[in-house]
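Before anything else, study the sequence and fold tokens given here and see whether the fold suits the sequence. Record follows:
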Amino acid sequence: MAKTLRKIQKPKRAYVFWFFLILAIPLAIFILGYASGYRLDKTSRTIIKTSALSIYTTPSNAHITINGELLDNTTPFIQTFQPGTYHVVVSKEGYHSWETTTTLDTNTSALFADVVLFPQSQLTLEESSPKKEQMLRLATDEEMHTLSSATFVALDDAVLLLSGPQTLVIDETKKTYAVFDTALDTLFYAASGSVVAAEWHEDTLLIATTHEIVTYNKNRNDVSLVTRQATSIRDALFTSNGAHVIFVDALGLHAIEAYPNNVHARTQLSAEKDMINIRIAKDPERVYMDISGKTFSLNLE
């Protein structure tokens, strides 16, 4: 009787082993596929490769809203999504929101590694402020002659020179500007309207005209458009780390990302419409401006 019972138990154990083995194989495939980013698209009923969206902010613990849906996770944020176009809003209490629209393709990722949220600050009346460094100056007659012989167009009017690793030449009559190296070879030329502001931050030159802001990188010898707009730009400058451009137009004070590879997301810092003569001070970083003959400041961090 005992022998017969053992004979029955052996096949049962074998059946159980094979049963769980058969279950384990598709389960393992599912886990590996899920871990690799594959998901079932309910619309097409096909398996697709998802894309990753990563967002890092200053300050951290900011909330993420995707296509109008507030997610549970805060920054730093890493999550996979099906390929498609997504409207992303990053928000935190007491700070201006940051937003962009990004398209995630199959088996790709989108990384926003340096999203800065600016505080919602009020303008503060100041008794004193840092002076704005005057970067532009008139060319001397000798410089005018040298540059006129080197340029491809005659310089008719006052030429303004910018101190820095290279020379920026502005022809105010023709509304053109050019960047030259020490050998007076033309590196960059544009005809884009009156220049309202220009300054260097390390190896990058900021040029703001009445309707656009561009940056020129000396090392890469390339130009990147930061913004182009119908509203007239009055003044512009870099933040202390060069990551953003602060500028004034008829709608107020704005900050816009300056990195060439960024989305150039814009934040309106103030709706005050009469600002002029903006300048930056550090520790803590503040932007100063003149309004109706008085000096005000706004906190940037």
Summary: The chain has two helices and 26 strands. The first strand starts at residue 38 and ends at 41. The mean pLDDT is 80.
